[in-house]
Specification:
This protein is of the alpha/beta class. It has one domain: Rossmann fold, CATH 3.40.50.300. It has 9 helices and 10 strands. It has a 6-stranded mixed β-sheet with strand order 6-7-8-3-9-10, sandwiched between helices. Strands 2-1-4-5 form a 4-stranded antiparallel β-sheet, with helices on one face. A hairpin with a 2-residue loop joins strand 4 and strand 5. The radius of gyration is 18 Å and the shape is globular. The structure holds adenosine-5'-triphosphate. Adenosine-5'-triphosphate binds next to helix 1. GO terms for molecular function: ATP binding. InterPro entries: AAA+_ATPase (IPR003593), ABC_transporter-like_ATP-bd (IPR003439), ABC_transporter-like_CS (IPR017871), ABC_Transporter_VariousFunc (IPR051782), P-loop_NTPase (IPR027417). Pfam families: ABC_tran. Keywords: ATP-binding, Nucleotide-binding, Transport.
């Protein structure tokens, strides 16, 4: 579903933010991407979703190159940045309909999915209100619902749990497991190691722009907790 080969990115005048990163996310994977602040997670994610150009390597979504055919790739994926920038002058439901139109979601599917996810995140009653009146967590929930209503094959999330209350975080974890059990794939960054360990079937750890461990969660973690492995690798590798 997502193949990254030898991805390398430098910003102007800087050293390599990500250096020769390769990994594969398959159908049904919940793939956690962890690393210290400044490790290169957002850089990788932004390149994967086609909003950041890069000089070396190849990224494919469902076999299609993000460089050669970004529009075809974007039709297959949904991306929620760490700080989603929504249209404040729209109401929640107007925004969801705007996204629904963009991705040609049928009326019946739109109604069903907005109802299902709106209720799950307890946002239904606020969908008629202006986004400018939403709290940070409500905006985050709306962004998540907007990503889910077009049933993407690949969901890419940058720090999705930040700003969510415990109930909403639990709802999101349940939904992530559910969409992957139905054949989609999720690639997401997080600093919440406990959640990553419980939720993800695969984990990648990035340090200073280089991938230092990746694979099945139980293999990356071995006999230890993910937190122990992470600390060990970050401190000594
Ligand atoms: N627009 C930019 N211009 C120059 N350097 C940048 C830019 N964006 C990121 N960097 C640098 O690239 C490196 C990787 O940053 P990135 O945002 O990908 O890290 P991250 O793993 O997402 O960090 P965090 O956990 O803090 O969000 C850092 O050294 C950062 O300073």
């Amino acid at each position: 579903m997502l193949t990254i080969r030898h991805f390398t990115k430098s910003y102007k005048g800087g050293k390599k933010a990500v250096d020769d990163l390769s990994l594969v996310v398959e159908r049904g994977d919940i793939y956690g991407f962890i690393g210290h602040n400044g490790a290169g997670k957002t850089t990788t994610i932004r390149a994967v979703v086609g909003v950041l150009d890069f000089e070396q390597g190849e990224i494919e979504i469902d076999g299609i190159s993000i460089k050669k055919d970004p529009l075809a790739c974007k039709a297959k994926l949904a991306y929620i940045p760490d700080n989603p920038d929504l249209y404040d002058h729209l109401t929640g439901i107007q925004y969801l309909n705007f996204i629904g139109d963009l991705f040609s979601v049928s009326g019946a599917n739109r109604e069903r999915l907005i109802g299902q996810y709106g209720d799950a995140f307890q946002l239904t009653a606020s969908l008629g209100d202006l986004i400018s009146s939403y709290s940070h967590g409500m905006k985050q929930k709306l962004a998540i619902i907007s990503a889910l209503i077009h049933e993407p094959k690949l969901l890419v999330l940058d720090e999705p749990f930040v700003g969510l209350d415990p109930k909403a975080a639990h709802t999101l974890k349940t939904i992530m497991a559910d969409v992957c059990s139905r054949g989609s794939a999720i690639f997401f960054s997080t600093h919440v190691l406990d959640t990553a360990e419980k939720l993800c079937n695969k984990i990648a750890i990035i340090k200073g722009g280089r991938l230092i461990a990746h694979g099945k969660t139980e293999e990356v973690r071995g006999e230890n907790s993910l937190e122990d492995v992470f600390m060990e690798l970050i401190d000594h590798d």
